[in-house]
Amino acid sequence: MRAPIGDFDDARPAPDCLDLLVAPVADAVRAWDGDVPAGRLLYVDTDPAIADTAVFVEHHGADLLDTSANCVVVAGKRGGDSTLAACLVLSRTRVDVNGVVRRQLGARKASFASTETATGETGMEYGGITPIGLPAGWPLLVDSAVVDTEWVLIGSGGRRGKLIVPGKTFAGLPGAVVLDGLGTA
């Protein structure tokens, strides 16, 4: 099957590719009960050697500049308490950590989580973290522009491979809160 975005010749339903996904993502796809059927979550194989955005877009299509999203892990701190959350924004934007994220988490201070924390807590590889399969109870802050995008390219949990998902899917993920202005230019 041809992918709905990008230049990928072999897009396959994610439920048919569970062996190619990291455990938490495979588990989430296996137990999927979202409004969008699991078969509409598509897996495409990609080379981790060309994961840098500029090279990736050059290889797989310029339309991916407007249809790909990044998922980052943030830590909000208030007093001695720390809250981990994931943020999903279009790749051409940056997460408003010190404004929208800090306020949404009710934190005094917010920052990007360390690589060790992000990978250790999610069970995913750095550079492939995805909102599908996040730890239970985590807030997932989603920029409204992501939800409004017809098809979105996201990580698959590992450095190899990506998922292409209808944008409206993200509003229904566990812990999802859709926010205007989470991604800034």
Automatic annotation (TrEMBL):
UniProt domain YbaK/aminoacyl-tRNA synthetase-associated: residue ranges: 51-164
Protein name, entry field: Cys-tRNA(Pro) deacylase, prolyl-tRNA editing enzyme YbaK/EbsC
Pfam families assigned to the protein according to its UniProt record, in alphabetical order: tRNA_edit
UniProt-listed InterPro entries: YbaK/aa-tRNA-synt-asso_dom_sf, YbaK/aa-tRNA-synth-assoc-dom
UniProt-recorded Gene Ontology molecular function terms: aminoacyl-tRNA deacylase activity
Gene3D superfamilies: YbaK/aminoacyl-tRNA synthetase-associated domain
Source organism superkingdom: Bacteria
